[in-house]
Amino acid sequence: MKLDAPPLGNLALDFLHTLRRSRGELLDVVRTPDLLAAWLVTHVGEAASPLLRPLTPPEGRLLLEEARRLRRDVGILVATYAHSGSLDEGGAYGVNRFLAACPRSPRLVTEGGRPVLVERIHPAGGLAALGPIADAAARLVCTFAPVRIRECASDRCGAWFVDTSKGGRRRWCSMAGCGNRTKASAHRSRRRAG
Q1: CA dist 26 to 17, 81, 156, 183, Å?
Q2: Which residues of the chain have pLDDT under 70?
Q3: Which of 44, 57, 68 is nearest to 128 (CA)?
Q4: C-alpha angle with apex 83: 78 to 85, nearest 5 degrees?
Q5: Which helix (H) or strand (E) holds 107?
Q6: Nearest CA-CA partner of 69 in 161, 133, 142, 22
Q7: CA–CA dist 134, 70 (Å, integer)
Q8: Residue spans of alpha helices (H) in 129-179
Q9: For a tag on the chain, would you pick the N or C end, based on fewer CB atoms within 10 A?
């Protein structure tokens, strides 16, 4: 399975896409501590530099469990925001937990009914390698209107993406991938029926 799937435009959405639907099954791209470390080094870059050293089995297992927890919380945050325009308290709490691990971190709060980021400075925690993902999730919901955050319309995909198209009518995470497959399948079905 490829670690380097095409980016969806936001680190948090890319991380959500590490759990993918394929032929009716869920596939976890970061199912081991080593695969998670490789994904983080590739996608997060310098902030993941602590992962360049080998992790002990307990460290790796803990990081993998925490990454899965973050992925779940980001998924809840993004889905709730996209569908209702409000923040899910549990998802925001989980994202803020990882933001707190970063030396310079924003905290996601609601002011006047809108999500905003308030920045703080403090010592880095052990989860700092996952902090940039939480930061990307917080900035996503503070930057884009809920109607611009969408789930791919392909029943075989389910990836989240930001619709930055002028008309705001994008349906697929990638026209070259999911869009073409969906349109080709519909065309084949029409030809068979006609």
Answers
A1: 11, 23, 10, 23
A2: 1-8, 46-53, 105, 121-126, 194
A3: 44
A4: 80
A5: strand 104-111
A6: 133
A7: 7
A8: 131-143
A9: C
pLDDT digits (tens, 9 = 90+) for 36-66: 988 988 888 766 666 656 778 898 899 899 9
Largest CA distance in the chain: 66
How many residues in the chain?
194
- Taking phi over 0 as left and psi of -120 to 50 as alpha, with beta for the rest, 10 belongs to beta
Closest C-alpha to 46, from 138, 131, 134: 131
Rounded to an integer, what distance in angstroms lies between the CA atom of residue 4 and that of residue 103? 28
Asked if residue 50 lies in contact with residue 61, where contact means CB atoms within 8 angstroms, the answer is no
Residue with tokens 């530099």: 49
